[in-house]
Amino acid sequence: MTEMLSYEFMQRALIAAVFTGLAAPAIGTFLVQRRLALLGDGIGHVALTGVALGLLTGIAPVLTAVAVAIVGAVVIELLRMFGRTSGDVALAILFYGGLSGGVLLTNLAGESAASLNTYLFGSITTVSDGDLKIVAILAVLVISLAVGLSPQLFAVCQDEEHARVSGVPVRVYSILIAVLAAVTITVAMRTVGLLLVSALMVVPVAASQQLTRSFRTTHAAAMAIGLVAALGGVVSSYEINTQPGPTIVMLALAVFAVAALFGAATRRVRSRRHPVDFGRGDI
Amino acid sequence: MSTDSTQPLKARGVSVALDGRPVLRQVDLDVSAGEFVALLGANGSGKSTFVRAATGLVPMSNGTVELFGTPLDRFHDRHRLGYVPQRSRAVAGVPATVHEVVMSGRLAHRRLFGWSTKADAAAVDAAISRVGLPDRHRSSLSELSGGQQQRVLIARALASQAELLIMDEPTAGVDHDNQESLAELLGGLVHEGTSVLLVAHELGPLRPLIDRAIVLHAGEVAYEGPCEGLVGEDHAHVHAHTGQPPIPEGLTGEGVWR
Ligand SMILES: Nc1ncnc2c1ncn2[C@@H]1O[C@H](COP(=O)(O)OP(=O)(O)O)[C@@H](O)[C@H]1O
Ligand SMILES: [Mg+2]
User: Fold this and answer.
1) What is the rounded distance in angstroms from the CA atom of residue A196 to the CA atom of residue B104?
2) Where are the beta strands (DSSP E) in chain B?
3) Out of A186, B51, B157, B197, which could bridge B82 as a Cys pair, Cβ 3.0 to 4.6 Å?
4) Do the bridges between strand B9-18 and strand B62-67 make them parallel or antiparallel, or are there none, so unpaired?
5) What's the Cα-to-Cα distance from A246 to each of A123, A207, A221, A251, rounded to whole Å?
6) Mutate to test the pocket of ligand 1, among B23, B215, B217 (most ligand atoms within 8 A of CB)
7) Does B91 lie at the interface with A, CB-CB under 8 angstroms?
C-alpha cells in the first residue's frame, strides 16, 4: 500500500479517481432521472473522435475531447428538441459516427490502436500533471453546478412541462445537463476510459436508488458509491495488473448487486409488516 | 383589446395546428378574478391543447393570450400560475419524495444557488396538508397510488400560492369520495380568491362550484354559459349529478380527504 502510494503516477491516478468518482454520478443522477441513461455513452463515443483529433493535430487530447464532446452533446439536445429524429436513433448515430471517426482519425495520425486503447478503457500510468490540472478544474465545475443547481435540474428532469410553465428556462438547463455530461466524460477519460465512463454515471445511481426514497439521498449516495468504486478500482487495477476502467465498473456493479439484494430483502420485510391497507380508501 | 391586470386569463381567437392539422379554431375564453371556469368536451376535442397553448407549452398559429393583463410571451410572474398537467408523469427515473416534488412548485419564488427559505417550507407543508397527505411527506412518489400522485401534483401547483390554477383533468380516474374532497379543497381556494380553470370530462361533485362552463367540440366552442344549460348536452358527455348537497360557504377545504 505505502509502496503503491510512493509512485507519483499512482498519486495522480488516485486524485483523478476521486474527481471522477464524484463528478460522474453527480451529473449521471439527472440523466437517469430523465431516462437518458445512455446519453453518456453516446457522448463518450463522440469524445473518442475528439481524442483522435488531438492525436492528429498534436493538441492535448483532453482539450480536443472536451470541445468535440460539448459540440456533440449540444447537437443531441437540439435534435431532441427540434428534430424529427427520435432520441434512440440520434444516439445510435452518435455511437457509430463517434467510434468510426475516432478509429479513422487515429489511423490517419499514424498512431496504433494501442494508444487509442488507453483512452477507451483508461490507463492509470499515463495521467500527466497537465491532465490532472484540467481534470480537477473541470470536475469541480461539474460537481458545483450539479449540486448547486439541483433544485432547477431536478424540476426539469422530473417534469419538463411543469418546469416550463413555472418559468424555468428548460432549454438552457437541458443543454447545461448535456454539456456537463460531456465535460464529465472528459474528466473520466483517463481513469475509466471513454467506453465505460457512462457506467460510472449510471451504475452508482442504480445502486443507490435500491435503498433510498428521496432524490437528495439518492444523489449523495450515488456520489459516495462512485467515489468508493473509482478509488477501489484504481487500487485493485494496480494490485492485480488490470486496466482501471473495467475494474472500476466491475466494483460498481458489485455494489449494485449487493444493494439490489439488500433493497429487495428490506422491501419484502417492510411489506410483510405493513400490508397495503385497502380499507383506508387510497385512490 | 383593453388590458385588465386583474383578469387572470383572456384568450382571443386562439388557433392551434398540430402536425399541420388544425386542432383549435378561434377559441375565446376568459377567466375573471375569483371565477371558477370549467372547460368540458369529449376526448380529443382540444381541451388539453387549449390549456397547453394558454400556458405557452404549444405555439399558437393565431390569436392572443393575456395572463393578468400581460401578453403570454412577456409574462414573467410565473408564480401567479399553478399548473396541474393531465396524465400523471409524476414518477421519473430516480426516486423523489412527496416533499421534494411539491418543493419544485416553489421554483418561481427561489433564487439560483439558494437554500429553500422558511417561507418555501411553510408553503410546501401547507400544500401537502391541504391535499390530505400530511403523513406522507417523506414517502417516495412511487409508493403512492395513482390518485395520491395526482394529489401531489395538485399540491405542487398550490405550493406556488398561485392566483390562477389551471388543472387538466384532475378528476380523471379519481373515485367519487375523493372527487368530493377535491371539490371541498377547490371551494376553499375559490373562497379565498383563487381563480380556477378546470378541464374535466365529467363534473360530478364539482358542479355546484362552477360559475361558467365552456364546451369544446372538435376544436371550437360549442357552448358557453352556466352549468344548468348543459343538461342534455349530449356531445359534451357531461352528466348531471343531481342530489349533491351544495358546498356551504366559508369552508376551509382542509383535512377532508378520505
Ligand atoms: N402532439 C400532438 N401532435 C399531433 N396531434 C395531437 C398532439 N396532441 C394532441 N393531438 C390531437 O389534437 C386533438 C386534441 O387533443 P387534446 O387537446 O389532447 O384533446 P382533449 O384534451 O380534449 O382530450 C386530438 O385529435 C389529438 O389527436
Ligand atoms: Mg386532455
Assistant:
1) 33
2) 9-18, 21-31, 36-41, 62-67, 70-71, 81-84, 164-168, 195-199, 212-217, 220-225
3) B157
4) antiparallel
5) 11, 17, 21, 9
6) B23
7) no
pTM of the model: 0.88
pLDDT tens-digit profile of A185-242? 988 888 888 888 899 999 999 999 999 999 999 999 999 999 999 999 999 999 999 9
| Amino acid letter, A126 | T
Range in A204-208, B144-148, B241-245 the model is least confident about: B241-245
Backbone angles phi, psi at B71, to 5 degrees: -55, 145
Residue A103 contacts B where some CB pair is shorter than 8 Å: no
How far apart CA A134 and CA A138 sit, in angstroms, is 6
Q: Are A73 and A181 in contact (CB under 8 A)?
A: yes
What pLDDT score does A85 carry? Answer: 65
B56 to chain A: nearest residue by CA?
A: A165
User: Which atom of ligand 1 lies nearest, measured to the CA of B18?
Assistant: 4
Q: What is the pLDDT of residue A84?
A: 66
> Would you mind telling me the total number of residues written for chain B in this entry?
258
What does the mean pLDDT of chain B come to? 84
Nearest-by-Cβ selection for B178 from A152, A216, A283: A283
Mean pLDDT of B106-116: 82
Contacts of A232 (CB under 8 A, 6+ apart): A248, A251
Q: Which amino acid is at B92?
A: A
Note the ipTM here.
Answer: 0.86
* Residue in A203, A195, A244, A198 with CA at minimum distance from that of residue A221: A203
Read off the C-alpha cell for B38. Answer: 370549467
Torsion, CA A53, CA A56, CA A59, CA A61, rounded to 10: 50
For residue A259, the one-letter residue type is A
pLDDT value, residue A273: 63
Residue B248, pLDDT score: 40
- For residue B50, the ligand 1 atom closest to its alpha carbon is 17
Cβ B88 vs Cβ B146: under 8 Å: yes
The answer to whether A282 faces chain B, any CB pair under 8 Å, is yes
CB A247 within 8 A of CB A233: yes
C-alpha to C-alpha distance for B41 and B31, rounded to whole angstroms? 18
